[in-house]
Design brief:
Blueprint: E1 2-5, E2 8-11, E3 17-26, E4 35-46, E5 57-58, E6 61-67, E7 86-88, E8 94-100, E9 111-116, H1 123-129, E10 136-139, E11 149-157, E12 163-173, H2 185-200, H3 203-210, H4 217-225, H5 228-231, H6 241-260, H7 271-278, H8 282-285
Keywords: Membrane, Transmembrane, Transmembrane helix
Transmembrane segments: 22-43
InterPro entries: Di-copper_centre_dom_sf
């Protein structure tokens, strides 16, 4: 009883039509997400009175989507990789702007009306966009809206109320992972502040403050270590499991970041950029290794200088195990740190 628009199932608009809302669920990872539909309870009555207006007609309309922090959509959007052509990001003010492709047309007396074509169980999406008028709509989705995919129609009418053009668009609400150097200042500071919190707060203490999704570095070190040097075996490496296991690690890590700041994603370092730009001088010239990010890389070969020189992580220490019972760590060094058992590092501070 509907049709597919850009990969989005959209019901045919009808007068005073009641229909069941449908939810679209997706993994938070933009690059490795899956999409599935599930039925949601509740009924909403929608009356548009503009059944024929949702068909693409008249002068071509163009949709532009940006947000308060990034003026451009992610590079992969609009390339055919995904079944949607536009992305709005949670926990940011997004700007959806419609215009005529032919800028020579006078639309000064036109009215642009926005419609949400399909239910995605999001009250925010419907209440913010459906039935609103204007060439630009501001939309701030919440974390709960992430993963939702919805169809939009924009109808342009003249001063007499007659439809002169209309167009449909497929839009997804997704978190976006970016390379560290592409982050705006606000996001970069927020990301590394949150990461510092994870490295300076135990899982137990952090969950009391930030909730059950929080994981400290003690949790990830313990889980990833997994007694692999003692047993000569690891559940996370050495086979095809590496890919899925580390994707799962990333999702858990990302959840911890968002327990601290709901706008964050698990951003990444593209190491080939440093190789290309800086060659053998990457350690001293790359912005990745500065106080603003991971801390300066001390190039001295003297043992006393083998630590992070500055920044948020210069005082980070390995967790100390309870060596009397040896029950708190999967394995530990001879100095009692939760690290590979064959490590001879005598100090607790992170070494390179």
């Amino acid at each position: 009883d509907g049709e597919v628009i850009g990969g989005v199932a959209t019901p045919v608009p009808r007068q005073a039509r009641s229909y069941t809302r449908w939810g679209v669920l997706a993994a938070v990872a933009v690059s490795v997400g899956f999409v599935a539909t599930s039925s949601m309870g509740g009924v909403r009555t929608v009356s548009t009175g503009m059944e024929s207006s949702f068909e693409a007609s008249g002068d071509v309309l163009t949709l532009t989507v940006s947000n308060e922090d990034y003026s451009r959509q992610p590079a992969s959007i609009g390339t055919g990789v995904y079944e949607w052509d536009y992305v709005v990001e949670p926990e940011r003010t997004n700007y959806l702007e419609v215009s005529l492709e032919d800028s020579t047309i006078d639309d000064s007396s036109s009215t642009y009306t926005w419609y949400v074509l399909d239910e995605d169980s999001s009250e925010d999406t419907y209440d913010t966009l459906n039935g609103k008028t204007g060439t630009q709509i501001d939309f701030v989705p919440s974390m709960d809206d992430s993963g939702r995919v919805f169809g939009l129609a924009v109808v342009r009418t003249d001063s007499d109320g007659a439809t002169v053009s209309s167009q449909r668009f497929a839009v997804a609400c997704k978190y976006v992972r970016r390379e560290f150097r592409e982050l705006c200042d606000k996001d970069r500071v927020a990301y590394f502040d949150a990461l510092s919190t994870m490295y300076h707060t135990t899982t137990s203490d952090g969950q009391d403050i930030y909730g059950s999704k929080f994981r400290g570095s003690d949790y990830f070190i313990k889980k990833h270590l997994g007694a692999m040097t003692l047993e000569g075996c690891t559940p996370w490496h050495d086979s095809e499991v590496f890919v899925t296991a580390h994707a799962a690690f990333n999702l858990e890590y990302e959840g911890s970041l968002r327990s601290i700041n709901a706008s964050l994603s698990a951003h990444y370092w593209e190491i080939s950029e440093d190789t290309t730009k800086y060659g053998e001088y990457w350690a001293t010239e790359s912005p990745i290794f500065t106080a603003d990010m991971f801390g300066s890389y001390n190039t001295s070969e003297h043992q006393t200088d083998a630590y992070i020189a500055d920044g948020r992580f210069s005082d980070v220490s390995f967790p100390l195990c309870d060596t009397s019972e040896d029950s708190s760590c999967p394995e530990h060094s001879i100095f009692g740190y939760m690290i590979d058992s064959n490590s001879y590092q005598s100090g607790a501070t992170l070494e390179r």
